[in-house]
Amino acid sequence: MKLSIAIPDSSLTDEKTLENKTRKIASIARSCGIFRVHEIIIYRDGKGNENDSKLFVTILKYLETPQYFRRDVFGKTSLLKFVGALPPLKIPNQIGTSDPKELKKNDVREGVIVRIKGQKGVDIGVNQMINYYSKHDIGKRIIVQIKNTFPDLSVKEITKNEISDYWSYNVRQSSNLLSVLSNWDGIKILTSRKAKNLSQTHIGELKKSEKSILVVFGSTDKGIHDMLGNKINTIQNAKTINFFPNQGTETVRVEEAIIGSLAILNAVVGSNK
Fold first, then answer.
1. Single residue among 146, 162, 178 that ends a domain in this structure
2. What number is the average pLDDT over the span 97-103?
């Protein structure tokens, strides 16, 4: 089972400062790392959220990027003013030694294409640049596997699909919620306080399925039912579920909804690689 989530760009409107928005995005990124989310989709929710949408995507991508080449990929931007105070996610693509002598054959690392003494190389976060002929432009992120170990380090490029276990999340944007739902081939879980509670029937169906799961969240001010209206009944392969029955607060914030819903799915459905 591969797990993805979709959240509206309006999720940040209840935060008034860049610092608070940054912290909320970091909380969401951390939850996605904990529960092995493969893709985060930020969908447009009306007009007027363009800046928040860009901020959302930029910080999510920044936090997913290994620390040793963030500067090469992102440079300087005002959107990242407060990210320096955030702790690393420590997801698998960010964990590894900085000592080239400790690298083992077939280890997988993230790297970035750099220029070394006039030639292209790859920086994989160890204290040694590796010569690497590539058609990629300088600054391009790649995933590599160790072919030869220290002192004659060499690597080969691989894809994320070649990694057997969870590695990191991807981030993409969508023009609207209906576009997200119509283009998703797997199971869709629409979270809503107006829906029925998670049942044994739901759990059994999810456990049996080998399809990827997309968990869709609304915003604090506008739930999935409000966004879709009568169209909610036309969505194929969709289950509308209330993960917070008898909630004791008037609203559940999106970052709370994400960690709560994913924790429940993780406990009752099981493995997510």
1. 162
2. 95
Residues 81 and 201 in one domain: yes
Residue carrying the six token digits 């990124």: 29
pLDDT of residue 271: 60
Query: Which uninterrupted H or E stretch holds 241?
Result: strand 238-242
**pLDDT on residue 48:** 64
Q: Which of 162, 197, 216 is the last residue of a domain?
A: 162
Interatomic CA distance for residues 6 and 61, integer angstroms: 15
Q: How far is CA 234 from CA 8, 166, 182, 189, 238, in A?
A: 20, 33, 10, 14, 9
Range of the domain at 220: 3-89+170-269
H/E segment holding residue 32 = helix 18-34
Q: Domain of 230: which CATH number?
A: 3.40.1280.10
| Pair (207, 237) in one structural domain | yes
Residues 198 and 81 in one domain: yes
Q: What distance in Å separates the CA atoms of residue 135 and residue 122, rounded to the nearest whole number?
A: 12
Asked, as a colleague might, if the bond just before 88 is cis with ω within 30 of 0, I would say no
How do residues 2-42 score in pLDDT, each as one tens digit? 999 999 999 999 999 999 999 999 999 999 999 999 999 99
Distance CA 18, CA 21 (A): 5
Number of domains in the chain: 2
Task: Indicate the DSSP class of residue 170.
Answer: E
What's the CA gap between 218 and 76, in Å, rounded? Answer: 32
Task: Give, in degrees to the nearest 5, the angle at Cα 190 between 188 and 191.
Answer: 140
Report residue 237 as tokens. Answer: 């392969």
- The pTM score is 0.94
